[in-house]
């Protein structure tokens, strides 16, 4: 895996647990990230997103004032969103399959399970850098293409311009 200089990347960390925010901030600082902003709620995160530009957001799903799904919905679906294509890493202790699929279907970019390590966090950041997926808009979805692999065995008709 290639090592990246992350000093120029700005992060917004959203978690109602200040200890978890401190852990994430510490991990990012260990990767030489210097532009880190914290939000303790979804509401505060959306205010900060309107005031500043960020390169990556890392958000918890379950917070006291609501949840990360509201943050994702506002970023991806609100006409007033300052950056609907902002990479969103969901960081959650809830790793039930239906929760991960719900986060994927809401428009997250990557999922990261708690407890988090420096290695897993770095790998998700690298995935965003190296494996940026096209964004898709359908009737009820806007976000990164949910398909992660191409099916080289598929023999059916090609219906996309890029096929």
What is the topological layout?
Layout: E1 10-14, H1 18-30, E2 35-39, H2 42-51, E3 56-59, E4 62-63, E5 66-67, H3 68-77, E6 88-92, H4 97-106, E7 110-113, H5 118-130, E8 135-137, E9 142-144
Parallel strand pairs: 1-2, 1-3, 3-6, 6-7
Antiparallel strand pairs: 4-5, 8-9
Written description of the protein model:
The chain is an alpha/beta fold and 163 residues long. It has a single domain, classed as Response regulator (Rossmann fold). 34% of the residues lie in helices and 20% in strands. It has helices spanning 18-30, 42-51, 68-77, 97-106, 118-130, and strands at 10-14, 35-39, 56-59, 62-63, 66-67, 88-92, 110-113, 135-137, 142-144. It has a 5-stranded parallel β-sheet, sandwiched between helices. A two-stranded antiparallel sheet has the order 4-5. Helix 2 runs parallel beside helix 3 (68-77). The protein is globular and about 50 Å long. The model has no long low-confidence stretch (mean pLDDT 88).
